[in-house]
Amino acid sequence: MLRPDLLLQPTPKGLYCPPGDFYLDPVRGAVDRAVISHGHSDHARGGHGKVLAHPDTLAIMACRYGASFAKATQALDYGEPVSINGVTVWLSPAGHILGSAQVVLDYKGLRMVFTGDYKRRFDPTCASFEPVTNTHVLISEATFGLPVFRHPDTGREIERLLHSLATFPERTHCVGAYSLGKAQRVIRHLRLAGHDAPIYIHSSLEKLCAHYQSVGIDLGVLVTVPAGEQAKAAREACRGQVVVAPPGSFEGKWAQNFPDPVIAFASGWMSIKQRAKQRGVELPLVISDHADWDELTRTVQEVNPSQLWVTYGREDALVRWAELEGRRARPLRLVGYDEEVS
């Protein structure tokens, strides 16, 4: 069987496949050929020559970067194999956001699976994670790769938001959520919990929310909050309502201009009280689009690879856990990927 380091190699630009001559999620400069796991900007950049990804990821990249974000694109549905210079490539759902995928490489009897970012819990806005069997090398993220990170039930966090809304009906509830994936997920969970009122959104969410709606993900009635001087009067209508906005909008006075705002934030990092305090968050919502410690370790046990390679985050703890389990493991030390969109 081929040695794994001959099929995939960590480089400053990202993971490189020499026999296939392509990169996985390259983020440092444009490359001739890229396979992209999902549409977050720390994994999917514009300017590459050829890009292969799930159709939803390609649509998201076009939505964010314009239709000409790459010289050529190839859409690949889940489970559909394609050969790139003799390397068979196929995608399996990652459960991270709409279109997110694990990238599976089969070559000369060796199977390597790159998870990209993933989670295992229910998400009504994307396909659920599917473990890939008969895997020799699993390349796993480790954003929350410490035993302290055990995320609560998402439904319970949504109920906390709705309880606060009912308790303080005169206050605007401003929820910080990353613009791609997290914002739409929070909105859809609110709908499933019975919140049928219009949900107000920051203008930067408008295009992505419209895309989610266009592929059949029902987000209900969304109202864009106007900007500029006219916004002050319009924001009075948000009293007692939910407003969803990207984290960057909370750095100035955008959220503070709403009537008596309750500042909430949806992120796995909200389990760390100091982070919530630093951001001035009154209602921390522990809602993550990444696997927590139990999901990470359960995935390794289910996939049962001969080797575990760990990247993106708390690598050492997961590597050490794997070694104590009797597994071969190594950290990759890839840089350039953002843990704040979690």
From TrEMBL:
GO terms for molecular function: RNA endonuclease activity. It comes from the Bacteria. SUPFAM superfamilies: Metallo-hydrolase/oxidoreductase. The lineage of its organism: Bacteria, Pseudomonadati, Pseudomonadota, Alphaproteobacteria, Hyphomonadales. Coiled coil: none annotated. This is Uncharacterized protein. It comes from Hyphomonas johnsonii MHS-2.
